[in-house]
Amino acid sequence: MTAQVDYLVVFFTATSGASGALLGSDEKELEQLVWQLVDVKNKKLGKVNELLIKPDLSDLAEEKEEEEEEEDEVEESAEKENKSRADNVSTATSLETALNLFCLHLTNEVNSAGAGTSVCLCTDGPLHIRQVIHPEAASKNILVPDCFHSFFDLRKEFKKRFPTSDLKALNVHNMAESLSIPVDLPAMWDPSASPDPSAILPAEIAVQLVQIMGSIVLALLSEPSSHTFSTEERVSEKFETGTCSKMEKVCDNTVIRARGLPWQSSDQDIARFFRGLNIAKGGAALCLNAQGRRNGEALVRFVSEEHRDLALQRHKHHMGNRYIEVYKASGEDFLKIAGGTSNEVAMFLSREDQIIVRMRGLPFTATTEQVLTFFSPEDGLKETCPVSGGKDGILFVRYPDGRPTGDAFVLFACEEHAQSALRKHKEILGRRYIELFKSTAAEVQQVLNRYSSAPLISVAPAPLVSMLPSVSLLPPPGRMRDCLRLRGLPYTASIEDILTFLGEFTHDIRPHGVHMVLNQQARPSGDCFIQLTSAERAIQASQRLHKQIISSQRGANSRYVEVFPCSTEEMGLVLMGGSLSHTHTHAHIRSGTGLSPPPCLTPPSYSFAPAPPIMSAEAAAALYPSIGQMMLAPRPLPPGHAYYPASTPMYMNYTAYYPSPPGSPTTLGFFPSPSSLSSPGGLIRMPGLTYNGNGVKDLINAVQGYQSPAESVSLLSSSLIGQSSGGDAPLMSLPALMTQPGPYLDLALL
20 to 30 A from 233, CA-CA: which of 116, 154, 527, 659? Predict the structure, then answer.
């Protein structure tokens, strides 16, 4: 607007919560409207009007009637006090009634004045309109009258007349003081005295503030100021969708991140949450997770830093039953989500006022004709919802090599057609059911960016394996697939159930070759690895047992189990904390999808049919180094765990679970079962133990893998062995695997 309006309405609001700079930040409801009409041409002030919003309490229980009477008495006394200050006092039972009553009183007063018809509100700062009226009306689905979509900010108008004044420090008191207007406010509510903004503003103070504001407006209009109120602020009535280029510059001070959004929320829901603040065109971008689904976050770009700061005051305001967290973000964050460079996407989104629907789960062979038929069947038996623009209104999402991803975006001309389309959710196209969701322009850009620039599920680095010591615990890469991976086991399945499921292939299992993979809570994950004696038997087992039914002795449910051959390298990767791709097939394809938290291995407390020795003791001694030689050059691993270094971040306490010995998986070669050795066992003495040790548990961890029975460990006190200082020295028996005496770390052969 360039011409000066005929009337200004000095407008003030008060809620049941905070006032001043925090007005509207606590989501409290509006309780009081105060206004005064100012005749701009004749420079006259009208009457001060007050409107109180009091909910109807007639439906409360009878036992609260006495309390209501007391409250009414208090309110009546307050009204009597206000009558001496406000010229007209009225009440309303709801916000919608109050807004309609305000418009009615204002129209009648303007008509009775007869000096013009153009009217605009004038407030002390933007909070009364942007943070009180519009947010509460949006949360209650109330249509706001047109007069609340434009207003003059008295502080900004004052700064135009007095450019040297500090806008952030301006308030009613110092503006009146600069214009030599007398101010009669209680000391505790004097803005120059820094009142508590969280305090509730009394009703009579609001009336006084409106009277002072009216005097300030009249002083600005009169000589010598002769100020002209010509350019008002606008409140956006509708969120405008649009595209954003990655080359566009986005100011860091205009972007926020909203977290905790409902999964089904759209950009229109975000605009509704920030109603009263002006969002830039296409400035609401929903964030997606690695699987392309919404993660409950959004980046919102506002038209200015002022609106961004007001948005931050809505931290933990509610959208439905959920509170939304609001934080600062950067322009770079916004461009990563909403920015795009594809001309095809720009052409697709160039049509304005279009509703976008996302299709997910399409057959890879789906065509535009099939999509058009899906929404507008020719038989006429189902509801039709024509696609806007025909084939041009469909955008298939593809990988960089042109392969379809199963996603597509479809345009509809109106909300009615879009809702009809969404009712086809999970209907069949070809042999697949199709998921339908209401989408946004920013989501289109984000999905296209993810699929066209990089794989949707990125391959994460292997932090655990990269942190392993120089002596690798994994076998060298190889193609011998002599292991089995069982996937989809019942959670109640035990090792005995698995051995029963394997049947005749049980005899081909290596000693300590069954590994149940547990999750972070030490519960079965449904996966298991089996080490067999040969790759041929592994292939035969996978072909014969794949998708066969397994039953659990501890559960009534039975289910089929997927059986795949795999290599020791793949098995070791999972047992060391990695994860294999769920697309693993018989086609000898190995792919990874990143590392999951390190699993835990079950203790080797199972039994199986005895297997014949793989090699004689003499051959094993010639092929593998003796334990003594290995102990002379120990691995740089701290004692206590067989696989994981102490510096590696753990996800749970692994000392409560005992992994299989180092011979399984084959990290240092395969050691034959001790039953095939005829040499007698021996005793070792371990002097120098600390006093604060955990006893047998630490000793078992220290000698883990050397098949020392737990019952053979004995702790001898210092007095028993004649030591005057130092820790207790235990005695334990071991199979005679150490053929040569010598200093083996801290061990002494007895």
Answer: 116
Q: In a 10 Å sphere around its CB, with 0-12 CB exposed, 13-18 middle and 19+ buried, how is residue 4 labelled? A: middle
What is the reported pLDDT for 376? 84
- What are residue 359's phi and psi, to 5 degrees? -105, 130
**166 residue type, one letter:** D
More confident residue, 703 or 656: 703
User: Any bridge partners for residue 749, and if so which?
Assistant: 684
Q: Identify each DSSP E strand in 16-107 by its residue range.
A: 30-39, 44-53, 88-92
Of the candidates 227, 307, 232, 321, which has an alpha carbon nearest to the alpha carbon of residue 271? 307
- For 3-62, the pLDDT digits (tens) are 678 899 999 999 988 888 889 999 999 999 999 999 998 889 999 999 999 876 555 455
Where are the alpha helices (H) located in 568-717, listed in sequence order?
Answer: 568-575, 617-623, 627-632, 696-702
Long-range (24+ apart) CB contacts under 8 A made by 226-231 are 227/157, 227/160, 227/161, 228/4, 229/4, 229/5, 229/8, 229/40, 229/120, 229/122, 229/152, 229/157, 230/1, 230/2, 230/3, 230/4, 231/1, 231/2
Summarize pLDDT for 575-601 with one digit per residue, the tens. 766 555 444 434 333 333 333 333 444
Sign of the CA dihedral with 570 first, then 575, 578, and 579 last: positive
Q: Within 10 A of 440 (CB to CB), how many other CB atoms are there? A: 23
Backbone CA torsion sign across 603, 607, 613, 614:
negative
Query: Measuring CA to CA, how many Å separate 33 from each of 10, 128, 205, 207, 458?
Result: 11, 10, 12, 9, 55
The DSSP line for 705-738 is: TS---GGG-EEE-HHHHT-SSS--EEEEEEES--
pLDDT of residue 198: 63
- φ/ψ of residue 211, rounded to 5: -65, -40
**CA–CA dist 325, 315 (Å, integer):** 5
Antiparallel, parallel or unpaired: β 150-153 and 233-234: antiparallel
pLDDT tens digits for range 343-402? 777 778 777 668 889 999 999 999 999 999 999 877 666 778 889 888 888 999 988 888
DSSP string, 487-542: ES--TT--HHHHHHHHGGGGGGEEEEEEEEEE-TTSSEEEEEEEEES-HHHHHHHH
Separation between Cα atoms, residue 65 and residue 49, nearest integer Å: 30
Strands 600-601 and 509-518: antiparallel
Q: Which residues of 598-614 are buried (b: 16+ CB within 10 A; e: fewer)?
A: bbbbbebeeebeeeeee
CB 626 within 8 A of CB 735: no
Residue 450 and residue 465: Cα distance in Å, rounded?
Answer: 28
Residue 342 Cα distances to 337, 350, 392, angstroms: 14, 12, 16
Using DSSP's 3-state secondary structure scheme, residue 323 falls into strand
Supply the DSSP symbol for 131: I
Output 631 or 655, whichever has higher pLDDT.
Answer: 631
CB contact at 8 A, 449 and 292: no
Residues linked to residue 525 through DSSP beta bridges, in sequence order: none
What is the predicted pLDDT for the residue at 248? 86
Tokens read off for 313: 């005051």
Give CA–CA dist 419/375, Å, rounded: 12
Taking a C-beta distance cutoff of 8 angstroms, is the pair 110, 117 a contact? yes
Residue 622 pLDDT grade (very low, low, confident, very high; cuts 50, 70, 90): low
Which residues, in sequence order, are bridge partners of residue 518?
524, 600
